[in-house]
Amino acid sequence: MKTALRWTATISLVLLAWQAVCVLFSIPRYVFPRPTEVFDYAMVNVTLLAVDSVVTGIEAFAGLTIGIVVSLLSVIFVYFVPHAERLFAMSTATAQSIPVLVVAPFLTFWFGSGVGSKTAAAALVCVFPLIGGWIAGKNSILPNEQIFADSVLPTRWARLWHFILPRSLPGFIAALKVAAPLSVLGAMVGEFVGARQGLGFRILTGSYYLRTEEMVSGVFLACVISLLFYLAAHIIEKKWLFWHGASAR
Fold it and tell me: How far apart are CA 174 and CA 169, in angstroms?
C-alpha cells in the first residue's frame, strides 16, 4: 500500500511539474505537448493505441520466447562442446555491436513486413544477453560443486538437467530481467521499417506529422509494456530462485 502511494505521489508530481513548465514557458505543442494534450489524444484514440500496444506486446513476447529457446540450446551445445564457448563469446560481442536498426531492413526482406520481421528483431536484441547469462551462470559453478555432481550423477545428460542448468539459473534470470524489456525495444525498432501497426509505427507516424502527443502516448505505453515484462521476470525470479540469496533482495 505504501509503495503504491509513493508511486502515485511521484507520478503526480512529475505530471504537475511537466504541465507547469509547458505553461510557464509557453512551449508549443509541436515541440513538446502538455500532459493534458497527451491525455486528450489518448482518450480519443484509445482503441487505436490499445491495438498497437497488443501488437507490439505480442511481437516482443514471441521474440523473447525465441530468444529463451535459442539461448537454452546454445548453453546445451556449449556444455557438450566446451571449445565452442570462446566462439560464442566472440560472436555475441560482435553481434551486440551491430545496431538492430541497421539489421531491420534485412529482416523485412527475409521475413516480410508482417509480424515475422518484428519478432525476429525482438529475438535478435534479447538472445545474446540471454546466452551470456546462461554461460555466466554455468561458469560460476565452483570446482568442488562440479566434482560432487560428477560423483553422484552418472551421465552427462543427468548432470546437465539436474545440476548445470539449475545451477545456471541465477545468471539466466539476471539476463532475463535485462532482455525482457529489451525485447519491446527490438519489436519497436522492427516496426520502424515497413509496419502498419504497433507502437513503433505510431511513434514514427507522429514524428512525420509533428503530432507530438501521439509520439508521447506511444513512448508511455512502450514504457508500461517494458515494465510489465520486467515485473514478470522478477516474479519468475521469486518463484524459481527462492533458494538463491539474490532473489530475496
Answer: 8
* CA 217 to chain centroid: 19
Alpha-carbon span 71 to 139, nearest angstrom: 15
Q: For the chain, how many residues are written?
A: 249
Q: Nine-digit cell at 2?
A: 505504501
| pLDDT, tens digit (0-9, with 9 covering 90-100), for 178-200 | 999 999 999 999 988 877 889 99
pTM (two decimals): 0.87
Q: Which DSSP letter does residue 142 get?
A: -
- Give 160-212 as a DSSP string: IIIIIHHHHHHHHHHHHHHHHHHHHHHHHHHHTTT-SSSHHHHHHHHHHTT-H
What is the spatial distance between Cα 7 and Cα 102, in angstroms, rounded to a whole number?
Answer: 37
With contact defined as beta carbons under 8 Å apart, do 123 and 67 qualify? yes
Q: What digits encode the pLDDT tens for the residues 221-239?
A: 999 999 999 999 999 888 8
In tens, the pLDDT along 124-180 reads 999 888 988 888 888 888 888 878 887 887 888 888 888 888 888 888 999 999 999
- Three-state DSSP at 5 gives helix
Burial letters 161-197, b for 16+ CB under 10 A, else e: eebbbebbbbbbbbbbbebbbbbbbbbbbbbbbbbeb
- Residue 154 near residue 30 (C-beta atoms within 8 A): no
Residue 67 pLDDT greater than 90, yes or no: yes
